[in-house]
Amino acid sequence: MPDQASREWWEELFQVYEFAHYRQYADELTRREVDFLIDALGLRGVETVLDVACGGGRHSLALAARGWTVVGLDAAASVIAHAQAAATDQGLNVEFVTGDMRQLPYHERFDVVLLMNSSLGFFDDETNQAVLNGIARALVPGGKVLIQCLNPYQIERYLRDFRSGWYPVGSGFVLREARFDPRRATLVINYRYVDAGRGIDVTHPGDQIRLYGFPELTAMLRAAGLRPLSVFGDTTLPPVPFEEASIWQVVIAIRDRPVRKEAEDADRADR
Fold it and tell me: Domain Methyltransferase spans what residues (predicted)?
């Protein structure tokens, strides 16, 4: 398969069929995560939300079901088609868009942007910064972004359960092999899918995810014009602090409102 077609196939496998295979677990995980999002972001039900790298749309669909206006964006057209079909089946009004997170077409449209499940880091440092810059542009003044990503200082703990092994998906099995390259602070993951009954044996093109420590991540947010507000150690309730043993870091940042001209004039007069 060509590289793009191969990646689309794998995205369907992971974002659609894997979640369907583990439906009960996936539904409970999504419920817990959305409960956390609502609490941590202080959502009131009136916000417009952009779910970047939305995959099969599980967060987008769950938020829409609770009344939020949601746009879900992902680069894989086939996955977006599945998400749109799910929205139609559930009678939900969600706008699903095929798009590149590196070139978000929005300007001051959203109250909240989500970047979940370690979806920051698929590119080089300059491009990852450009992703955050685009998110900042998409936010209205006073809007917030929530980024969930792995804590590189605890990657060994994360890989204890994730490093390698076979697991079932659909009628076949996936072999996952993961390692961390400390020289590049990059998580490298390779997959193979085997379905003997259907004569399938394919290899994933490979993922490389640059992991950022908290000081790096907050510096990148500030460079994008986003002010970090809080950080948590997981997407669970009650909220857990980000500390030494945290595998995840969940950062919330705000695009500050511009200072009003009258306030600026008053400030000058006081000097």
Answer: 49-143
